[in-house]
Amino acid sequence: MAVTWMEIVVADPEVGKLEQAIKRLQARKTSDQDWKKEIAHVEANGEQPRLTYCGNQTWYENYKPLVVRLIGRERKQHHSVLSSSEAYEVAYKHLYELIPACERSSCPCIKGFVIPY
Q: SS3 for 61?
């Protein structure tokens, strides 16, 4: 039987809190008009933005370490659902897809592809 996102959240509510934190980041990024104006202005002039948000950097530095700690084979306390590779893959894909994309067209990590685990 396939592991679902809801099974993971029920098994460990901390994972649901992580999802909410990413959704708050998403809301902040989509509503931050100053950020978008700064990016558009400097890119139009061929410059690098001073504000350098990167979706992959945000994921790998802030969120992936938490996923590794909570779900998968590296989880410290064994759990019948959460310790599986399948649960890790489901959580990874679900949460990574919530990370806002880079807003600079020149960013080397342009989103739209799935990052390997």
A: helix
Is residue 90 scored above 90 in pLDDT? yes
Cβ atoms < 10 Å from Cβ of 88: 22
Determine the Cα–Cα distance for residues 99 and 28; give it in Å rounded to an integer: 11
**Separation of alpha carbons 34 and 49, rounded Å:** 12
| DSSP H or E segment with residue 86 | helix 85-98
Exposed, middle or buried: residue 91 (CB in 10 Å: 0-12, 13-18, 19+)?
Answer: buried
Give the DSSP H or E segment for 68. Answer: helix 64-70
At 28-72, the pLDDT tens digits run 765 566 656 655 666 666 665 555 677 888 888 889 999 999 999
| Cβ–Cβ under 8 Å, residues 7 and 79 | no
